[in-house]
Here is the input.
Amino acid sequence: MFTRRRALLAALVWSAVSLSAGTALAQEDQLSAGDTAWIMTSTALVLLMTLPGLALFYGGLVRTKNVLSILMQCLISAGLIGVFWILVGYSLAFGDGNSIIGDLSKVGLAGITVDTLSGTIPEYVFVMFQGMFAIITPALMLGAFAERMRFGPYLAFIGIWIIVVYCPLAHQVWGGGWLADFGAIDFAGGLVVHMSSGFSALVAAIMLGKRRGYGKEPMPPHSVPLTVIGASLLWVGWFGFNAGSQLAADGTAGLAFLNTNTATAAAVLGWVGIEWMHHGKPTVLGAATAAVAGLVSITPACASVTPMGSIAVGIGASIVCYVAVTMLKPAAGYDDSLDVFGVHGVGGAWGAIATALFISETTDAGWGGQIGIQLASVAYVAVVAPLLTFIILTVLKLVFGNLTVDEEGEHVGLDISEHSESAYTGAPGAAAG
Amino acid sequence: MFTRRRALLAALVWSAVSLSAGTALAQEDQLSAGDTAWIMTSTALVLLMTLPGLALFYGGLVRTKNVLSILMQCLISAGLIGVFWILVGYSLAFGDGNSIIGDLSKVGLAGITVDTLSGTIPEYVFVMFQGMFAIITPALMLGAFAERMRFGPYLAFIGIWIIVVYCPLAHQVWGGGWLADFGAIDFAGGLVVHMSSGFSALVAAIMLGKRRGYGKEPMPPHSVPLTVIGASLLWVGWFGFNAGSQLAADGTAGLAFLNTNTATAAAVLGWVGIEWMHHGKPTVLGAATAAVAGLVSITPACASVTPMGSIAVGIGASIVCYVAVTMLKPAAGYDDSLDVFGVHGVGGAWGAIATALFISETTDAGWGGQIGIQLASVAYVAVVAPLLTFIILTVLKLVFGNLTVDEEGEHVGLDISEHSESAYTGAPGAAAG
Amino acid sequence: MFTRRRALLAALVWSAVSLSAGTALAQEDQLSAGDTAWIMTSTALVLLMTLPGLALFYGGLVRTKNVLSILMQCLISAGLIGVFWILVGYSLAFGDGNSIIGDLSKVGLAGITVDTLSGTIPEYVFVMFQGMFAIITPALMLGAFAERMRFGPYLAFIGIWIIVVYCPLAHQVWGGGWLADFGAIDFAGGLVVHMSSGFSALVAAIMLGKRRGYGKEPMPPHSVPLTVIGASLLWVGWFGFNAGSQLAADGTAGLAFLNTNTATAAAVLGWVGIEWMHHGKPTVLGAATAAVAGLVSITPACASVTPMGSIAVGIGASIVCYVAVTMLKPAAGYDDSLDVFGVHGVGGAWGAIATALFISETTDAGWGGQIGIQLASVAYVAVVAPLLTFIILTVLKLVFGNLTVDEEGEHVGLDISEHSESAYTGAPGAAAG
Amino acid sequence: MKLIEAIIKPFKLDEVRRALTAKGVEGLTVSEVKGFGRQKGHTEMYRGAEYVVDLLPKIKLEVLVRDADVEELIGAIQDAASTGKIGDGKIFVHPVADVIRIRTGERGEAAI
Amino acid sequence: MKLIEAIIKPFKLDEVRRALTAKGVEGLTVSEVKGFGRQKGHTEMYRGAEYVVDLLPKIKLEVLVRDADVEELIGAIQDAASTGKIGDGKIFVHPVADVIRIRTGERGEAAI
Amino acid sequence: MKLIEAIIKPFKLDEVRRALTAKGVEGLTVSEVKGFGRQKGHTEMYRGAEYVVDLLPKIKLEVLVRDADVEELIGAIQDAASTGKIGDGKIFVHPVADVIRIRTGERGEAAI
Ligand SMILES: Nc1ncnc2c1ncn2[C@@H]1O[C@H](COP(=O)(O)OP(=O)(O)O)[C@@H](O)[C@H]1O
Ligand SMILES: Nc1ncnc2c1ncn2[C@@H]1O[C@H](COP(=O)(O)OP(=O)(O)O)[C@@H](O)[C@H]1O
Ligand SMILES: Nc1ncnc2c1ncn2[C@@H]1O[C@H](COP(=O)(O)OP(=O)(O)O)[C@@H](O)[C@H]1O
Here is the structure.
């Protein structure tokens, strides 16, 4: 009787242990179908952000004669980086390497099989999720030199930039590099994705010079509806970007998801309110821009602030980006065609700082200490990314001679001069009888 | 020997018990990554329904000069309600409260952390899933007063409506209120979402008056392709709306998913057939409208009917909505610009009733009894929602003086008069050289 | 003591056994919420491919006067096949039947309940996932006879084709039919979906004759941006198509996902490179076409090749499809309006063969043997599908007299002649005051 | 014969057309144009940058008419198109040397 | 000099242009217009509401020509544009007071 | 009175308009047209098929002016629109029989 009882007890304890061990294993070393499902979904959502999200957001903003060049630059980013990432990008970003950059141990995804896990998900899924980040980041920059950059130099630029700027930064923050050790918080890429592209874009805009007629004639968006579709798909896709960055389908992912939406909503409200007060009427383009600014800003912060904090992040984003886009740019006089710097650069920096400002659980560094860390990280990216971009473009200028199209090409538009195509053909001859 | 055997047996039994307890726990008290993955996905899909789904569906239907006003009203619903929901909406709808409305216990999401569960998913995920419902519902109404309502009054209207009409109804059906106790079946929101918005929209259309020229000049859609894109994204997103409402990735979610598609397909077939017989030709706009009508109708019923039953629901939807849109509206003479009442009001009511008509497993109330309950619930919403809307709009008229734009504003269109923007600029000066 | 120990041991062993049995069961016989989440997501993604993906891809390519007819044909495929699939299609494809075709045992989904599983997912989910494949396949063909086929005959055609061509092929490959036994590898439908539709489309294009003016006047796409949106959504949705075909959220799904993106990216790069060399400029339409060609080609191969192999599949696709579209078609002189044969027929065949060429783990048949099997399968589909299509269309010609619109109808366009609608109304009278 | 060319506000097109057909006009041609004149335009905004749009949408209407009908039709257009506000537009009367109906080859007044 | 203005069916544009260039015309200007005439329009439907569209798409073609060429070119247009069905359109011949080539400042026939 | 009709390159519209208003012009009408002339078009590609687009976008500008102002305004347009490259366009001067301001019924020069 006694024996049986103890045996029973032991069995129960062990059952429990083995059960919870099973659960624990599931969280650390075993594949979780639920997590995998969410990250594959997130991966698809992040591609949706570029194709067609960003392509439309930017494509609607340019004049009719340049819309295809935008779409093409987004498509080719997916094409070029999509292949590069498998060949070397992933290895450079997530190979062990040192504190600055990864190594070549995973070139061509060497050593990865369907059974290799990264946490609770297949490494293949992790590779692809990160690959979609690599695809969108250089494409973000194209808004800065839209309506003038030639296609060949663009291709060379993003191909080099991804290796020289993006992979090291991704490694430094997410791949075990020094920024992670330093304590920088950048959950889904405020530094790596948005600041890096935004600040690089500013340099590119300045180095490539203004569009002919800029400042003299209005260059209104050829299709605001396309831009709104793009902003909407960015919003939807960004849930994968941010909540997917948890790499699991759990409570933190849920918080990241909720904060993403809330900050974005707050930014839209904020911007609409500012415009209303400032100009007497709120614009749709303003609301769409605000959405992107909100999304950018909450990106680094989404897992570190409370929902109420995310409202503050979003409203802050609407203020700083509004000022950057409508006052800083005209005052400084550069032609950042579609405001990549004002939205991604400034919004990303704001988000990185706001992460510490509104942090819900202070880190070891303390509240003030974390603010310091974030500021230092922001400063680092704000210096390194543009510097490297400056060097790349200087070299490319030597190689290509001219990075922009000539006057004739700019007048007829890049669609015809670079791609021999017209976006819309409803003209005489195409009409009905 | 004997002892060992019994111990063994006991251990086995307990193992089994603990195992199944584990499973049972997993279904009730533990986070399920799979369920969480599906509900986060569903949440993204429901936002896709509003942005850009509904925005395009409605945006394509209006004239060129008003398309941006539609997009703006959808964007701002996400902005305003997105923030409101976190601040008070969720608490009013899902706080304990009484049988009519929730309470303020969860204001600002107080008390919720990343570890708080709602069933098998993080409560944050539940909050956001429900938040997307709250975002789309007021936006559904804007079709009724499209091309004339001013932006300010619209903003005030949806802000009040969500608190006064939506949150109580959501509480009464899904938050533990009286309609749930009463036995009303409304799986994904035929009553709460579609009837409430559809019947409120009718009142708004009548109170705001007709568009100038309505009934005298044709007001054809400026872009049927935009409308079809919108309808398509609504269709896709609705899987999250309906199958997500199961709050789990299981067989019932699968049934809801399959019924959603099947009823919609049946509605498209039905409408196309009716138009073909009635007018000699089926239209694309008809097919797109039918898709939405089918989606609306299956919403309350999707977990309660068999696939064959869903075909009946869908065909029924095509008949009742076709009659409402093409016969009832012209006969009654109100100007429900984009047929919100005919599609959502009538379709939602039909769906709520059809839920009982084609129910696969009779409830305690019995087949007839459930029909009675559904009819009573339909009647309740058909009275309460419009009544409250009438009061809100009456007050707003006093406050704003005029809820619609003046004649000049209506002629140039809301895009310019309310937002100082033009949707498309391909005009002289923007063209190529 | 002894007894207790043994009892304990036994209990432990059994705990372990029951635990792993539980796990094993979970993989074979129990519902996995994670897998279910992924397949529901995939199902939504596959619908996104048709609505609005394919609709826009094709819709942008035609002239303004025919865009609605394309959208309608996509919508009605979802309507008609969406209902057909539930009524009989699923049963014919996946009912036990014989080696050629299923049976009528599952007509109306008889016998399936929310508890019925198909592997680790509810059978309802499997039914719907497969249903989305059945919806897109006939819609793929419409590009071949775009801008001329009447709506009635089209409806009859796809209704018959799905029963006579699609269901048997799906059964033969995925439903336990002879092609599976034969050893053909067709993971996500290179044979069943793309070759079957591509080769059938060729026959249809030839039988329906050329568009008036074909070869004499240019018939440029009316909106390349719509086409790019469509291609982008196809790309995003295809992750569901391919990675969903694993029917689980696991490492193989991850590989399929990654290969899908990589091959597509490689195809885009390849096509852009070829055009650049061949014509001096790369086009956006080329890049979009390449994306679809890459997606088609990797479809059968995505779970059988390594990521490096997928690059080869993608580049190969860009070459064979480029040749088919730009050289074979003009040389042969048929009017496959939107290159269904060149992209889906040729790309599907290439993919099926490449599956064996670049296979990562040789099958029992050996490397060469598998190539033989794939070639034989390709030949089989290349003969059977067009033959059956020829018979169907011959009968329909007898029934309908004429499958295409008359001269007047072709001049004014199918939108007005078949559907009494215009896509865009921004014309005089609709403009602002 | 004269060609009457009227630049009118877009929302007046239907009314003008009805007025003309009421007077027996059996054919006319319209096109979308933009007009600049005394009517002040509106301001558009693009991310904070305001600019004035003073080329406003107008409809150009062309009707070929018999000399005898010119005055009556001018009157009809004017009545229908007038709102009394700036921007109502202009009517130009052009001499025409000849007119041919493509289908039949008829010439002159018979071809109107 | 005369300005020949032809309103034709859109799908005839290519043919007419070929006919004119065959006769030595080196420049012309086209625009999209809508025409109302004897040709009956079509019905469109919008959620059950039918309405008649009787402003049909047409192409307007303008060619400035030497007086001596007027008849020949009218004939060429007519031949190319005619389908024999109602709605083929009209040709108007306008007197022109002067013409200037912007690039060179040439005037009169030299500027055509 | 004369109607000056100028076919110009689209990107020159702003400049021409400024030049005209500087000379006191208070109204004009513009439309989008396509022109065929000596200026060579460009090639477009569609899945490997190349075709030449030789109807190029142009802007047509119409200004009704007093006889006395004709020469000055022609000069102003020419100066502003000229790039010296082929395709700069043409100016046609048309006689006008009459002009009416719809709003007021004014006629002739008063209505310009
Ligand atoms: N001198 C002109 N030449 C050509 N078109 C003119 C001229 N003056 C006015 N218009 C046309 O008439 C329209 C109305 O002119 P506007 O001066 O605004 O008002 P109103 O006709 O009431 O005086 C303008 O938008 C323009 O299209
Ligand atoms: N009196 C008119 N003034 C201006 N345009 C006209 C006139 N009559 C006809 N048109 C133009 O000519 C087109 C063809 O005219 P219609 O009467 O339909 O056929 P047809 O030229 O064969 O008699 C019309 O669509 C319109 O654009
Ligand atoms: N004979 C003509 N009739 C009508 N329009 C003409 C004629 N010749 C030229 N044009 C218009 O003028 C534009 C410029 O003409 P083009 O021959 O290319 O250059 P340029 O004016 O420098 O000689 C053309 O695109 C066309 O719109």
Observations:
- The pocket of adenosine-5'-diphosphate (ligand 3) is lined by residues E 27-29, 62-64, 101, 103, 112; F 7, 35-39, 56, 58, 86-90 (CB under 6 Å).
- The domain at 51-419 of chain A is CATH 1.10.3430.10 (Ammonium transporter fold).
- DSSP finds 15 helices and two strands in chain A.
- Chain A has one domain: 51-419.
